[in-house]
Amino acid sequence: MLAAIALALPVAAQERPPVAGDPAAYVRARAADADGAPERAGIGYARALAAAPDDAKIAQRAYRQALAVGDYSLASRAAAILVKAGVAPPDTDLLALAMALRQGDAASAQIAVNRLGRGPLDFLAPALGAWLAHDRGASGVAYLDAQSGNALARRYNARHRALLLIAERRLGEAMTDLALLLGTGDAEPDLRIDAALLFDRVGEGRAAKRLLAQAGTDPRVLAKRRGKVDAAFGTARLFLGLAADLSTDEMGPLVVLLTRAALLLDPGDDRARLYLAEALSVEGATQPALDVLDAVGTRGGFAHGAGVGRVQVLRRAGRDADALALAARLSDERTASSSDAETYGDLLAEESRFADAANAYRTALDRDGAPGEWRLYYLLGTALDRAGRWDEALPALRQATALAPDEAEPLHYLGDAQVRRGENVAGAQALLERAATLKPEDPAIADSLGWSYVQRGDLARGLPLIEKAARGDPAGSRVNEHLGDAYWRLGRRYEARYAWRAAALFAEADDASRIAAKLTDGLAPQSN
Hints:
Blueprint: H1 2-5, H2 23-34, H3 38-51, H4 56-69, H5 72-85, H6 92-102, H7 106-116, H8 125-135, H9 140-145, H10 151-167, H11 171-183, H12 190-201, H13 205-213, H14 231-246, H15 252-265, H16 270-282, H17 286-294, H18 303-316, H19 320-332, H20 338-350, H21 354-366, H22 374-386, H23 390-403, H24 408-421, H25 425-438, H26 443-455, H27 459-472, H28 477-489, H29 493-505, H30 509-521
Helix pairs in contact: 2-3, 3-4, 4-5, 5-6, 6-7, 6-15, 7-8, 8-10, 8-14, 10-11, 10-12, 12-13, 14-15, 15-16, 16-17, 16-18, 17-18, 18-19, 19-20, 20-21, 21-22, 22-23, 23-24, 24-25, 24-26, 25-26, 26-27, 27-28, 28-29, 29-30
């Protein structure tokens, strides 16, 4: 997915000074942009663009800033300048299509789809063309069935064929297609919600609610969403589906464009707001992200998701106290989920409040559907260990490894913790050997396994692993201390002190005095 779409990211206009006009407005806009004041930046770019209407550099910045704050008029004007200058990124056609559909201009919409079909976003063109055919009174399904394309196009075509079957009221066929797609986990839960919205719009409310109930989705996602079944609706679904697919691929600018365009076509779609806020936050636009989340309905099916999204935005912006307070409130709500308690625990752990974090993870485990989650047992165990409650941590960590014998993370943690304590060293070594098989290039695992061999007197096996770990993590304090200890035991005093000096450079306060003592006195006989 990422490789196929990378070309669609914006291409910067040539770096050159803006033409004569209002350079002060441009400078003020850049300053506001850097200060995290997007609305002020947008106003500044708009003024600079008005004074220099042919300047592609200003237009490029104005285009992205306008999308960040939802100024569609400025975005369209800037996009037109970029097109005229021949430096428009391909995603400007997505905005042009949305604007045309919003204005009911079918001819311009078709032109935009045709342009998309000739660029890196060509995989969207068949489904978009099918929805335009539906608007003309033709069969969108027949249109899609006549198309060919690459694997990416076929994926989106399959989703939208199912949706178009609902739009054409071929409900039995639609359910067959949906069963196949949902059975493979494709686009879950977004495809399920899209299909339910369409069932509701064609008067099949019971089918819509049944589809949502099968996945435990809040039926309030359907509230006040009745409307036309047309190309605007279908295009919004397609844009949102692509945004969801790209949301974890570090393609924030394209996700912002897609979700803004989806909201232009379907202003009531709070799900689009969640994806938009996340993308804006990743791009550093904290206040616009919070503003978007503020617009999510407080009584709808995405209200809780907006709260969760706000926690992540605040967390990403470094507003840890605000994020922690909100996470605590969400975790205490009557309808709070296991995930809410887990998020609260994560934030507490980041604040080194490990005992409180452990309580939050226990709450997460106690909630419906959570007891089989290995990761919760792992988080509980690590929090208890760091709180100084090893006797309670050990059974939780053992449960995590029992539930996830092929997950390197809990295997490594439990094995390493036992080796450090000199407990069950043979069994701990077996855990570390398993972890190393699963992640052979992980320096931390190699170090722990090598150290377990050293602790059992097998320096011939342990030293090469620790040396490998040190090459993979040359600044690691722990691995360099282990390396120095191993060298010392072999009588390689100079190399040992060199490794300890490297360890001392980045040692935390609790470790620094111990390493300093080794540099002065070396290792006492029989010491670990």
